[in-house]
């Protein structure tokens, strides 16, 4: 087995379609891929169709953005029920919030003297979950910045001058939503959020795992999160957070080593919960 449990497609801010991502997964020797688009599930079915054709197993997933006062907390959901009415209802609201947020970010940019129209961003995204990477790409295309890094550093990083918060979803609400759909909630890239102190509360809210294996995690950070998972009775997951070519991130699909036991433990937990 060889798995990547954190992958984006064009249905959120990835630059490759689900079919392209799964073809690449086959090429690089992956046997299991979890599609975890931001706040949207539309990429899962097309990925499954390609997966069936090529013999790549697809785990239905999502990455929900939540915020505390201090940090953004990304909750990954694995084996989510993609027809769950509650999940679909809430992500629709979140998607509408994302569109309003693009308009608000463009207004902020206008105030900063940058003439970027929201329609340009919507055209680029052409999906239900537009996000900051689309704003960054539009800023690059418009010649306002030299690259993605400058776009984020100068304008749209968390609490940057043109940053606008997401639809208000707390980590606990994101966890509850994943659980309600029959899925398993996992704390994505915890070192990025840098708020380890909330892990016991998230555990109490129903968190089942931590993404200890992640592309930006150093060896010591991985060790740290493996220990935190163990101490809190949580499972461990991992992935590359692949966003495709020219996505502003150079990480390769499947480039993070995810031990087979992580995938097996996750599947067994899902099976165990669905037996009773
Ligand atoms: P959003 O959900 O709209 O707030 O956008 C968050 C996404 O922006 C993340 O999932 C990454 O794909 C991307 N992102 C965040 N920071 C950076 C950065 N410094 N450079 C490139 N992409 C970034
Ligand atoms: Zn993203
Ligand atoms: Fe994330
Ligand atoms: Fe991600």
From TrEMBL:
Under InterPro entries, the record lists:
PHP_dom, PHP_domain, Pol/His_phosphatase_N, Pol/histidinol_Pase-like
- Highest taxon listed in the record's lineage: Bacteria
Which SUPFAM superfamilies is this protein grouped with?
Answer: PHP domain-like (SSF89550)
Chain ranges of the Polymerase/histidinol phosphatase N-terminal domain: 3-68
Per its record, what are the GO molecular function terms? 5'-3' DNA exonuclease activity; 5'-3' RNA exonuclease activity
What is the protein's given name?
Polymerase/histidinol phosphatase N-terminal domain-containing protein
What is the organism field in this record? candidate division WOR-1 bacterium RIFCSPLOWO2_02_FULL_46_20
């Amino acid at each position: 087995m060889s798995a990547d449990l954190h992958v984006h497609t064009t249905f959120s801010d990835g630059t490759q379609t689900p079919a392209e991502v799964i073809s690449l997964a086959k090429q690089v020797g992956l046997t299991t891929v979890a599609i975890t688009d931001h706040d949207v599930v539309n990429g899962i079915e097309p990925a499954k169709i390609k997966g069936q054709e090529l013999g790549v197993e697809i785990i239905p997933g999502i990455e929900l953005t939540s915020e505390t006062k201090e940090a953004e907390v990304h909750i990954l959901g694995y084996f989510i029920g993609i027809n769950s009415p509650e999940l679909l209802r809430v992500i629709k609201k979140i998607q509408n919030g994302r569109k309003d947020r693009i308009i608000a970010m463009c207004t902020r940019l206008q105030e900063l003297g940058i003439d970027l129209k929201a329609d340009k961003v919507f055209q680029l995204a052409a999906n239900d979950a537009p996000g900051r990477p689309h704003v960054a790409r539009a800023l690059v295309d418009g010649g306002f910045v030299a690259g993605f890094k400058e776009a984020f550093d100068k304008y749209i990083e968390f609490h940057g001058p043109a940053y606008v918060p997401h639809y208000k979803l707390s980590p606990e609400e994101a966890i509850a939503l994943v659980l309600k759909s029959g899925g398993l909630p996992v704390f994505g890239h915890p070192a990025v959020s840098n708020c380890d102190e909330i892990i016991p509360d998230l555990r109490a809210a129903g968190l089942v795992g931590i993404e200890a294996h992640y592309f930006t995690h150093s060896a010591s950070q991985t060790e740290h999160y493996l220990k935190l998972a163990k101490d809190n009775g949580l499972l461990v997951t991992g992935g590359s957070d692949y966003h495709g070519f020219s996505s502003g991130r150079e990480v390769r699909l499947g480039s993070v080593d995810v031990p087979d036991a992580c995938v097996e433990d996750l599947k067994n937990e899902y099976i165990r919960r669905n037996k009773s």
